[in-house]
From TrEMBL, chain A:
One of its GO terms (molecular function) is oxidoreductase activity, acting on CH-OH group of donors. This is PQQ-dependent dehydrogenase (Methanol/ethanol family). The lineage of its organism: Bacteria, Pseudomonadati, Pseudomonadota, Alphaproteobacteria, Rhodobacterales. Disulfide bonds join C58-C59. Ca(2+) binds at E126, N210, D252. It comes from Silicimonas algicola. The keyword Transmembrane does not apply.
From TrEMBL, chain B:
Residues 163-172 have a biased composition (Acidic residues). This is Methanol metabolism-related c-type cytochrome. It comes from Silicimonas algicola. InterPro entries: C-typ_cyt_methanol_metab-rel, Cyt_c-like_dom, Cyt_c-like_dom_sf. GO terms for molecular function: electron transfer activity; heme binding; metal ion binding.
Length: 534, 172
């Protein structure tokens, strides 16, 4: 099906009963398709949004989909309006505005409907937005609580005595005392990723993004709680524990990637785990009840900005990445070009979610294999204007297979790659693991690929009409299994890779210029559904 | 000597070839004079100056830095364009200096059934406006293929006059 919008198509359709709900990038149309009637359109919702929101969105007008609960479809629009639609009729039940686009506050993410609440995040880290998470009443849309990523204790919803960071109380003013002056007010730490929840613990989990600006010299300190995994109470928003992965970010390694929850045995003991593949190139495994750090290992061998994350709780560096001076854009200073930093700002993985198979106990991870040069410099803040402060040059990881991506299988307890499939372009599609032992992912050239969950051997591929940055999904209907995928190249991948990447450090002798994505695919907006053989 | 003449002849042929398409493309990029740490064409339009050994003038280098901080999120690295917004290395060869300024300052919208192109007004953004001429000359250097993709390997030292103008504009 053609969706009528030619922009980056992230996220995936949603199937509830006999209806499939499909969303588009800006203007964020929602289609309800009747699966019992050959996909006939039951209803279509098209919000009227001010087009001025478009350029305030960093990196394309993507949207990562709708969510469903209690007979309602929830759409979080680009302009930050959260809308509850009647799932049967498409009529608006309630709507509420979560942010102010004139200050650079926008949205690309979906929401988390949980218990009697709808939890929504915000984008705009490149505009000096102060990130927050807000809970709205699922029936009425009324705001119930809001938790900022930085600021006074009453803003960030912590209890200085009981909220912990790596087992220790965070103490008073933890959201302001690692900032200079009022800088926390434009501190970033936006919340545009994916949300998970554990109803037994009454906790939900998410990550916060980079501190604003990209010039680290302009914001001394650890910049808490940017770049942090957060566990908060669903009812009150109160934080139970934090873990800051990248204190004082110097590379734009947003911490917003998905938190995958699993129950697995470690040394014979069943644990409730949270696994997170961060942009900074480390794969983290934590105890999701206590926030204890169990594993932190590189999931791409080229990662070089830090040697390791210290795992010894008695060390004063416990939980901190050990930054390599050569790749520290802070230590090298303003107006100095730090070269050969891996990964690039888009991370060893961006928002595209990994998948977990309880059968193999492996995680299937779409990754970027891209490095960068990074030169920070002075910028000044203007409300609603970009607040960046660094020049980047990105290129495929040197001395590797020449491609810009890998699709890997990861053991989250050993902290090891089990197998790795090299890809010409970054893998920007969410993965899907099925009980049949088959794992699916999409590529930027437009292929939907199926591989063996144990070995990574390719079983099947099909070329869809445009590059894939959406997430593979599956559903069952009348005893048949289907696989659905959105095609439509764009997002960061479409902007950064369209013209190809060049390595400025190759020198004159090397063959300059790498494959341009625009030689392989063009804009699109299609939904392709496959029926699996029995 | 004969080699010199040959080069000169080739240069003339190139100029004639370009003037044939002068209505679509703006080809006058030759640096004529320097003022305040920046080069200008004979018509007083900011332009780049690249030495034979590849050393670029500081303003053009500054344009590389500011472009790849302020513009590349939509327009792709090095003015090369992306799936989201056009390649500015090509646009600046059709837009004159004043049209370029107008679009950056006031923004631009082409919103209709076929597309949703919106460029924001950046006139209030010092990180862009204080470096607008730098970005323009950098993109023109890209458009004429005088400067390649990526970071220019060699650059002129920062002229004193350039620093003074920058500090005055940024208020630092």
């Amino acid at each position: 099906m053609d969706l009528g919008v030619l922009r980056g198509h992230e996220g995936s359709p949603l199937v509830i009963g006999d209806t499939m709900y499909v969303h588009t990038p800006f203007p964020n149309i929602v289609y309800a398709l009747d699966l019992a009637n050959d996909g006939k359109i039951k209803w279509k919702y098209e919000p009227k949004q001010d087009p001025n929101v478009i350029p305030v969105m960093c990196c394309d007008t993507v949207n990562r989909g709708v969510a469903y609960a209690e007979g309602k479809i929830f759409l979080h629009q680009a302009d930050t309006k959260v809308v509850a639609l009647d799932a049967e009729t498409g009529e608006v039940v309630w709507e509420v505005v979560n942010g102010d686009p004139s200050k650079g506050e926008t949205n690309t993410a979906t929401v988390l409907p949980i218990k009697d609440k709808v939890i929504a995040g915000i984008s705009g880290g490149e505009f000096g937005v102060r990130g927050s998470v807000t809970a709205y009443n699922m029936e009425t849309g009324e705001q119930e609580w809001r938790a900022y990523s930085m600021g006074p204790d009453s803003d960030i919803l912590v209890d200085p005595a009981t909220t912990t960071h790596l087992g220790e109380p965070v103490g008073e003013n933890s959201g302001t005392n690692t900032w200079e002056g009022d800088q926390w007010m434009i501190g970033g730490g936006t919340t545009w990723g994916w949300y998970s929840a554990d109803l037994d613990e009454n906790l939900f989990y998410y990550g916060t993004g980079n501190p604003s600006t990209w010039n680290p010299a302009q914001r001394p300190g650890d910049n808490r709680w940017s770049m942090t995994v957060m566990a908060r109470d669903i009812d009150t928003g109160m934080a139970k524990w934090f873990y800051q992965m990248t204190p004082h970010d110097e590379w734009d390694y947003d911490g917003i990637n998905e938190m995958i929850l699993s129950e697995q045995a470690i040394d014979g003991t069943e644990r409730k785990l949270l696994t997170h593949f961060d942009r900074n190139g480390f794969g983290y495994t934590l105890d999701r009840v206590t926030g204890e750090l169990l594993v932190a290992e590189k999931y791409d061998p080229v990662v070089n900005w830090a040697t390791e994350v210290v795992m010894d709780p008695s060390s004063d560096q416990y939980g901190r990445p050990q930054v390599v001076a050569q790749y520290s854009t802070e230590q090298n200073g303003e107006d100095v070009n730090s070269t050969g930093i891996c990964p690039a700002a888009l991370g060893s993985k961006d928002q595209q979610p990994a998948a977990y198979s309880p059968d193999t106990q492996l995680f299937y991870v779409p990754t970027n294999h891209v490095c960068m040069d990074y030169e920070p410099f002075q910028v000044s803040y203007t409300a609603g204007q970009p607040y960046v402060g660094a020049t980047l040059a990105m290129y495929p990881a040197p001395d590797s297979h020449g491609g810009m991506g890998n699709f890997i299988a990861w053991d989250n307890i050993a902290g090891e790659i089990k197998w790795s499939i090299p890809e010409q372009f970054s893998v920007w599609s969410g993965a899907l693991a099925t009980a049949g032992g088959v794992v699916f992912y999409g590529t930027l050239e437009g292929y939907l690929k199926a591989v063996d969950a144990e070995t990574g051997e390719e079983l099947y591929r099909f070329k869809t009409p445009s590059g894939i940055i959406g997430n593979v999904m599956t559903y069952e209907r009348d005893g048949e299994q289907y696989i659905g995928i959105l095609s439509g190249v764009g997002g960061w991948a479409g902007i950064g890779l369209a013209a190809g990447l060049t390595n400025p450090n190759d020198g004159l002798g090397a063959v300059g210029g790498y494959a341009a994505l625009s030689d392989y695919t063009a804009l699109g907006g299609q939904l392709t559904v496959f029926k699996l053989p029995n | 000597m004969s080699k010199m003449r040959l080069l000169l002849a080739a240069g003339i042929a190139l100029t004639l070839g370009q003037s044939a398409v002068a209505q679509e493309e703006i080809t006058d990029t030759a640096a004529d004079y320097e003022e305040g740490g920046r080069w200008y064409t004979q018509h007083g339009i900011p332009t780049f100056k690249v030495e034979e050994d590849g050393t670029v003038d500081f303003a053009t280098f500054s344009g590389f830095r500011r472009y790849n901080a302020e513009c590349f999120q939509c327009h792709g690295p090095d003015g090369a364009g992306g799936s989201y917004a056009p390649a500015l290395q090509e646009s600046v060869m059709r837009l004159d200096y004043y049209e370029f300024q107008d679009i950056v300052v006031n923004g631009k919208q082409e919103v209709n059934a076929a597309q949703n192109l919106v460029m924001p007004a950046l006139g209030q953004n010092p990180n862009v406006m204080c470096y607008l001429d730098d970005i323009y000359t950098y993109l023109r250097a890209r458009g004429t293929d005088t400067v390649g993709r990526g970071r220019p390997a060699k650059k002129q030292d920062k002229p004193e006059a350039f620093s003074e103008a920058e500090d005055a504009c940024m208020g630092s």
